[in-house]
């Protein structure tokens, strides 16, 4: 047991020590070497029985190898069968099916390439002929079903090789509509969760497309008739003998879901790693159930998961071991739910862990290791062979030792040259790889062409190749010009394959470089030259233009480029090449467009290209309409007629037409459109535009298109209707003219590379069988391209890549007629992973109390393991003297590869901690060691509060709380205050300095002012902070100082003051007075008595009072009239004298402005009141009386007092006269009594 452990330890040490000898070398073909298989057919080789069978086997070696084949494990003699030939200098077999039956060549073939140094074997190639058998022609009975039941229409296609693609169509070759109610299963059957009347039709047709033979087979149509209960009885007899009945007597009720497939409550499924997992659940029910999916033991892999066929199919691509587990599908409707568990088991065919074993080229006496490391589920077994025979059956070799997945070679000899086969297998597949050991003694030789000139744009990287061969492996050194010293370090990087990299090539790097390869057998050198070129730049870019329709425009594109580089300028419109239109005039540095139309609007891009560099710039063209003259009625033109195709060629055709009526607006252009009935029937696309003066167009066409043309005319009003289509013109297929655009490579996982591209449209496919040849290799000189062919997809995933490594990628379009042009190489990167290192030398430089500059050393790019996105600063305030609460962490992000950054908005006088970490698109790296810094003192915040208390006539007290943010040690406060008069004018400002421990101050002897404004701020050593503002209103002192009212207390400690008026302010003080001492006054107390709402109201404004006054006035008027009549009857004086002495009161004028009597006086109380009358409702209206007491009651001209004193005086005089008249007024109420009663009430 100990011996076994020692042998394993020695093997491991040898692998580590000898690892540098294992790099693969490409042996020049003029040197002896064992065979290497360079091309072979796929393991599963399906051939078309209509074509000759070709089984590839190509190999190289020195001497050139011979080839032999086995079929089904026995020797296959090519010479015995006249229908079989082997290509010259090749092992590729060709079978002429015109002379033999294809099924005779089905079997397992294996090729062996052999020379005197060894033998290499191919994979076991299983040859099978593709099959596309026909469906049975038996007529299918019509199916009659009751509305609402479930239904399955079986497809059951014939077994083909490979299996066919199934789809359902109708008689018109239109796909049958599918939904969450009706869908196709993975086996091709058509499922109805419940049927409806509209499902009745006679052309349910299942089609099978066999991709290998490009044939489509059709099943007999199926007729389905959906009936209601009323219709069933009427049609039962008719369909009894000729239909398949899916009926019962009861009506179909709504029901909860049940699964049609899969059956039962659970099932299982096995899938291989890297393949596509598809699980389906189709349920029936009424109403139609909704299907959903969950993973019982975890989450679904979001980026690799798709829900197909209306959620009935769960698809997971690129399956990994983590996808194993239980999956639940659920079908629900309003009546219930059904569930099914699918247990998924993931297996894996063998796959390489670090790639297949690499060829070894060793000098005699050297050591080396062949490693064949792979994995699988279950774990695969490893079988080593040498020259096609099991290694245990070969002669012993003391220089060779097999250790599980490695063969260790020590002190090899020339006779040790051989080809080793590593076969790794498990029940699900195998990997077979050849790797030779070639023992040579060979002096160095440089394989890179001599005197090669490398041209590089200034400030770009340069790579100078020095591919070499020798055994032992030669050492590579580089020299510049006169071999002043070995180039390594600083500006230069020497790669393991001999390539010299100049990271930033500049003018001083121009010159001659010498590559020297040497081993103990000799030395070889080669010279190359580096030429630095100026970059290509657009000095004057095109600018946006707005042009009226029918006008012209000029775009300029002034370019600067290296004079030795052939540079071209190309113009694009909306990313596409310009149409072949004579209105577009392209010069080297300008583009002009004449007779502009609306279709010319868009973006125009100037693209400058040469062999080393490029640049581009874009401008927008906007086209505005001209206002047509109103006098002429314009209309759209009529469509062109009589389309004719002439001058037929493979890639072009001539189209002519006759224009339609212009309708008073000249035709500006014709738009030629085409329909491709082969790829997109019913879709019309613009092909060309020609001026309105032309009636013919030379059309450039694409291969493998079925063209139909139509023409539209455009004038200032708009486009005409399309013309009638031309006859169809079919172009022959050809190899692709272009490759996919938008090739991009990036990783979705840390160990993969996802290559994507924009697929070619059917128009650009140029022929049948469009597919893509995807190639990639590690961006490292000397690495080989790996190529796969992808069809019907625009994505390919490379697994097992190192994390964030650059790859060269190219995608080439291929169809059945050949390959497209050589594709351009783009650079992509495999998947990112989290950074593994933190920034070093992190430090903080405090700039002021709120700003700190942080500095750090950037993390090396190889430790970032991804595209750097920036750095994140996590920082937090730990504590400070006046606030011990710890703040939450904050994050500040600096984009890009920064090495410093500003941290603003900090709190002064605080302790902070911070960490720095780098992050990429995958996430954050580890944090740096936590660092601390302290901010200096700053200006304090405003005091927390400021209150005015104890205001009196000439003093008040201010109270405040210290600032919430001290920002340092408080050294004191500054109080500023100033009076404010009634006009809001500010008086002189006073300032008072206060100690730090004070929180209140009393201000005495304030000058008289209605208001005061106060400003208080705190100070630290850094300066004064912002102030807090407060305003105080001083007590009202009245018109003048009143005398103090006194109340004797006589020793009591409280007193009740009476007679105070509501709404007034009083000063109250207590005075202690002895016999001989001066009085001692207490502090004055400022008291405001609240205003009490009085229940008494102004009587003069009350309606009842006004009515009463009017009644009294009326009574007085009546009394005065009676008195006047009585005097006239008494004859005391003549009427004439009376009239002369006194003008008739009816004609006494009144003052209009205040409704008062002009000549009324106390001496003329006997005169009646002019115009006084009272309405029947007891109110006084202004339109009835100009001297209404309402006016008097409102105090017009100040003649009435609020207590009605004027009315009382007036009434008193009138009452005295009434008393003199004796019985004349005895029956009327006394006005005097009424007024006295009123006065007493008031």
From TrEMBL:
One of its GO terms (cellular component) is axon. The chain crosses the membrane at residues 1104-1125. It is found in: Cell membrane. Residues 720-748, 924-943, 1160-1242 are annotated as: Disordered. The keyword Phosphoprotein applies. Residues 35-122, 133-223, 257-345, 350-438, 444-531, 535-622 form the Ig-like domain. Its main location: membrane. Keywords: Cell adhesion, Cell membrane, Developmental protein, Differentiation, Disulfide bond, Glycoprotein, Immunoglobulin domain, Membrane, Neurogenesis, Phosphoprotein, Repeat, Signal, Transmembrane, Transmembrane helix. PANTHER family: NEURONAL CELL ADHESION MOLECULE (PTHR44170:SF15), PROTEIN SIDEKICK (PTHR44170). This is Neuronal cell adhesion molecule.
């Amino acid at each position: 047991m100990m011996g076994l452990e020692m042998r394993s330890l020695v093997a491991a040490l040898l692998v580590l020590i000898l690892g540098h000898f294992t790099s693969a070398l490409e042996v020049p073909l003029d040197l002896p070497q064992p065979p290497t298989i360079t091309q072979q057919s796929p393991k599963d080789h399906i051939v078309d029985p209509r074509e000759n069978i070709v089984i590839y086997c190509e190999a190289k070696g020195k001497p050139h190898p011979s080839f032999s084949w086995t079929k089904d494990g026995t020797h296959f003699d090519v010479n015995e069968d006249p229908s079989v030939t082997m290509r010259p200098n090749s092992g590729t077999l060709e079978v002429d099916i015109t002379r033999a039956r294809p099924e005779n060549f089905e079997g397992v073939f294996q090729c062996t390439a052999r020379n005197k140094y060894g033998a290499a074997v191919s994979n076991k190639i299983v040859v099978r002929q593709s099959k596309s058998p026909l469906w049975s022609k038996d007529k299918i009975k019509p199916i009659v079903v009751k509305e609402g039941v479930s239904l399955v229409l079986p497809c059951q296609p014939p077994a083909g090789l490979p299996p066919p693609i199934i789809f359902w169509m109708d008689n018109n070759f239109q796909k049958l509509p599918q939904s969450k109610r009706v869908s196709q299963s993975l086996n091709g059957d058509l499922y109805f969760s419940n049927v409806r009347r509209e499902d009745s039709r006679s052309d349910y047709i299942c089609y099978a497309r066999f991709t290998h033979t490009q044939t489509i087979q059709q099943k007999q149509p199926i007729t389905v008739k959906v009936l209601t209960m009323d219709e069933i009885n009427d049609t039962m007899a008719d369909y009894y003998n000729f239909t398949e009945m899916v009926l019962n007597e009861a009506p179909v009720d709504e029901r909860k879901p049940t699964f049609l497939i899969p059956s039962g409550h659970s099932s299982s499924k096995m899938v291989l790693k890297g393949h596509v997992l598809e699980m389906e659940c189709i349920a029936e029910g009424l109403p139609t159930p909704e299907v959903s999916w969950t993973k019982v033991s975890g989450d679904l892999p979001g980026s690799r998961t798709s829900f197909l066929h209306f959620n009935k199919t769960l698809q997971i691509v690129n399956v990994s071991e983590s996808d194993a587990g239980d999956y639940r599908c659920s079908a629900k409707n309003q009546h219930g739910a059904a569930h099914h568990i699918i247990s998924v088991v993931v297996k894996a065919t063998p796959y390489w862990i670090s790639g297949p074993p690499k060829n070894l080229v060793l000098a005699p006496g050297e050591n080396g290791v062949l490693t064949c490391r792979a994995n699988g589920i279950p774990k695969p077994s490893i079988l080593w062979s040498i020259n096609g025979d099991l290694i245990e059956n070969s002669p012993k070799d003391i220089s060779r030792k097999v250790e599980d997945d490695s063969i260790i070679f020590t002190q090899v000899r020339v006779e040790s040259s051989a080809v080793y086969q590593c076969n790794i297998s498990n029940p699900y597949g195998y990997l077979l790889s050849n790797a030779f050991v070639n023992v040579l003694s060979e002096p160095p030789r440089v394989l890179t062409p001599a005197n090669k000139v490398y041209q590089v744009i200034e400030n770009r990287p340069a790579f100078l190749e020095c591919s070499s061969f020798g055994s032992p492996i030669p050492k590579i050194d580089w020299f510049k010009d006169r071999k002043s010293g070995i180039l390594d370090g600083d500006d230069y990087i020497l790669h393991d394959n001999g390539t010299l990299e100049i990271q930033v090539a500049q003018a001083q790097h121009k010159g001659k470089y010498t590559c020297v390869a040497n081993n103990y057998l000799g030395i070889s050198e080669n010279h190359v030259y580096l030429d630095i070129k100026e970059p290509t730049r657009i000095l004057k870019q095109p600018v946006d233009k707005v042009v009226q329709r029918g006008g012209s425009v000029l775009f300029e594109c002034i370019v600067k480029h290296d004079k030795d580089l052939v540079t071209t300028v190309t113009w694009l419109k909306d990313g596409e090449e310009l149409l072949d239109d004579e209105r577009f005039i392209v010069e080297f540095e300008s583009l002009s467009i004449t007779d502009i139309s609306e279709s010319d609007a868009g973006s125009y891009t100037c693209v400058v290209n040469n062999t080393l560099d490029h640049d581009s710039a874009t401008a927008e063209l906007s086209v505005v309409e001209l206002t047509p003259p109103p006098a002429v009625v314009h209309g759209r033109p009529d469509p062109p007629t009589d389309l004719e195709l002439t001058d037929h060629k493979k890639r072009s055709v001539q189209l002519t037409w006759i224009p339609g009526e212009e309708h008073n607006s000249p035709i500006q252009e014709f738009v030629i459109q085409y329909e491709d009935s082969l790829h997109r029937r019913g879709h019309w696309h613009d092909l060309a535009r020609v001026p309105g003066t032309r009636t013919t167009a030379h059309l450039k066409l694409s291969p493998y298109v079925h063209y139909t043309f139509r023409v539209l005319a455009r004038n200032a009003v708009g486009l005409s209707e399309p013309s009638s289509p031309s006859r169809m013109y079919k172009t022959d297929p050809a190899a692709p003219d272009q490759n996919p655009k938008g090739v991009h490579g990036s990783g979705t996982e840390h160990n993969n590379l996802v290559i994507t591209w924009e697929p070619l449209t059917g128009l650009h496919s140029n022929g049948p069988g469009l597919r893509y040849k995807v190639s990639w290799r590690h961006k490292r000189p000397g690495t080989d391209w790996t190529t796969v062919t992808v069809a019907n997809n625009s994505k390919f995933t490379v697994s097992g890549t190192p994390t964030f490594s650059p790859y060269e990628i190219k995608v080439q379009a291929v169809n059945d007629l050949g390959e497209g042009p050589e594709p351009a190489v783009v650079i992509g990167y495999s998947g990112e992973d989290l950074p593994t290192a933190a920034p070093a030398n992190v430090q903080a430089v405090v700039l002021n109390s709120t700003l700190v500059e942080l500095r750090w050393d950037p993390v090396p790019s190889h430790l970032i393991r991804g595209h750097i996105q920036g750095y994140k600063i996590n920082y937090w305030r730990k504590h400070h003297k006046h606030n011990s609460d710890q703040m939450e962490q904050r994050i500040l992000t600096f984009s890009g590869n920064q090495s410093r950054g500003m941290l603003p908005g900090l709190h002064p006088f605080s302790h902070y901690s911070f960490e720095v970490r780098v992050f990429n698109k995958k996430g954050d790296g580890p944090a740096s060691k936590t660092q601390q810094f302290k901010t200096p003192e700053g200006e304090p915040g405003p005091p927390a509060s400021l209150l005015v208390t104890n205001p009196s006539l000439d003093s008040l007290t201010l109270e405040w709380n210290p600032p919430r943010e001290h920002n340092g040690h408080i050294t004191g406060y500054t109080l500023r205050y100033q009076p404010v008069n009634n006009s809001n004018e500010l008086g002189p400002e006073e300032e008072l300095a206060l100690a730090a421990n004070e929180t209140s101050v009393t201000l005495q002897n304030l000058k008289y002012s209605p208001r005061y404004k106060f400003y208080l701020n705190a100070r630290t050593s850094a300066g004064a902070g912002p102030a807090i503002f407060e305003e105080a209103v001083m007590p009202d002192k009245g018109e003048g100082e009143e005398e103090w009212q006194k109340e004797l207390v006589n020793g009591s400690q409280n007193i009740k003051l009476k007679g105070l008026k509501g709404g007034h302010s009083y000063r109250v003080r207590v005075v202690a007075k002895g016999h001989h001492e001066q009085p001692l006054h207490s502090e004055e107390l400022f008291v405001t008595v609240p205003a009490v709402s009085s229940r008494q109201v102004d009587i003069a404004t009350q309606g009842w009072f006004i009515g009463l006054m009017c009644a009294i006035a009326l009574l007085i008027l009546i009394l005065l009239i009676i008195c006047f009549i009585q005097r006239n009857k008494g004859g005391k004086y003549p009427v004439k004298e009376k009239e002369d002495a006194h003008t008739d009161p009816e004609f006494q004028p009144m003052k209009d402005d205040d409704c008062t009597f002009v000549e009324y006086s106390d001496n003329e109380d006997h005169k009646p009141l002019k115009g006084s009358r009272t309405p029947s409702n007891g109110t006084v209206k202004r339109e009835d009386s100009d001297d209404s007491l309402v006016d008097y009651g409102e105090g017009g001209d100040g003649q009435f007092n609020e207590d009605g004193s004027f009315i009382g005086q007036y009434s008193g005089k009138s009452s005295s006269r009434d008393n003199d008249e004796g019985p004349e007024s005895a029956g009327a109420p006394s006005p005097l009594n009424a007024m006295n009663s009123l006065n007493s009430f008031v």
